[in-house]
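go over this chain:
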Amino acid sequence: MAQADPEVVVGPGRIRGRGQGGVFAFRGIPYARPPVGRLRFCAPEPPAAWDGVRDASAFGPAAPQPGAEPPADGADEWLTLNVWTPDPSAGRLPVMVWVHGGAYLFGSSAEPAYDGTRFAMAGTVLVTCNYRLGVEGFGQIPGAPANRGLLDLVAVLRWVADNIGAFGGDPGNVTVFGESAGAGLIAALLAMDGAGNHSTSDLFRRAIAQSVPGTFFSPELASDVTAAVAREAGIAPAREALAAAGPAALVDAAARVTARMREFGRWGGVRLTDTPFSPVVDGEVLPRAPWPALLGGAAREVELLTGHNRDEYRLFTVMSGRHGKITEEEAEAVLEAFAPAPGGPDGYLGAFGDADPGRLFEVVFSDWLFRMPTLHLAQAHAASGGTTYLYELRAEAPAMNGLLGSCHFLDVPLIFGPPDPGSGPGISDALLGPDPSAALLGLGDRMREDWIRFASGDDPGWSTYGTEHRATRIYDMPPDVVSYPEEASMRLWQRHQFDVLGLAAEENTAGENTAEEDAAEEDAAGRG
């Protein structure tokens, strides 16, 4: 269309976007009211109407998170989304809604890595969004709804259902896709299908889950984490006290807890990660963990494309400076924490007997945190009769002379394409390096084309995954289709059921109180 800066009408009023690079972008559109003041720790509420034409040229502020500058006064519109479209006057284009990752602690839709231009140029309407993180989004708080960050995503999808037609999109053809924590939230959306007031039925038809994390918390574990954060902040683990603390204060307290997670023995294997927050299987917002939910038939009618990268955990050992420095004791610790029954640590040692401690550490962590949760999600969906596609990324990041391998997050810059050189340095640049090969970029183009083909209603270019025929697309140079390649890990985990993570029976090695003890102490202090 000829108009450089088009205007469209959404529920609360008129907005003006920007024409750029042959597509049209609308940024910083509120999909809910700012979750502050009386709305702190509440479910999202629809945005207020505005007069005149709202400028939609700039991203909204990121949700509070470590390392971010506190927002300026009044800059509390964290709950915004962005839309890229080839033509707002088009009709019935496939819609893709991207959910960013970041360990449920970090991230923003303003990241240059998530620019939607290439997707829009290919004929889709691409939506990205912010959602609440950390304590704001996933802290288990008495008297507050659980999983507020997840409820934010439901609000995004309802906004899409109501408004995406104004951008040329088809509200009846929506695909959600995301990576890491974003994939975990998509798995949670699948588990919510048909469940009570927060059901996601009819909000999307397809889902793409890239590197699904296996951490879903019980209310008891999540409450204990919240209590630890409150203790660091010097306040009671109660809604009123937490709401009286500024978001930045809770972010700082959560960062201090994250830095000493290994002291919390009662948190089980979670203490060995840097992720103190995850979706909470509270029985109301999220009735079940994704794996038993999908095995029981939830989201059977939603087509699922899911997969992982071969060397998932390599990113974290390299970026932390630990690659090549993992000791036998550290490898033994993750084996004891994560190796599944019945084989336990001996099963891994038998299957990967030639691996040095560093390699064993990475394989076990990759399997527990990303690879096997992803595989089991595909297996559960396929076993219930769902249409399921599986992939593994095997191409290697060219940065650092290939040291990173096919690590976590590499799929993102491949699928979205390299960020604009003027956007500043970021993790995408750290993975792709200054001059990625044409062959690697071409592989990324192929992945994006496959994602869009799937979102348009076709198969992504390979056959479905089944419990007998485990067809798996291998994204390498060249691509291939084989039976699921990580057979040793698959067999070690075949009798394991991923489910809710709860408090461990182990004594608290940090000498800290439980959440219940904290509450009793605060109550006694109040009476005194």
Q: What stands out?
A: The longest strand covers residues 169-179. Confidence is low (pLDDT under 50) at residues 507-528. Residues 7-524 form a domain with the Rossmann fold fold (CATH 3.40.50.1820). The radius of gyration is 22 Å.
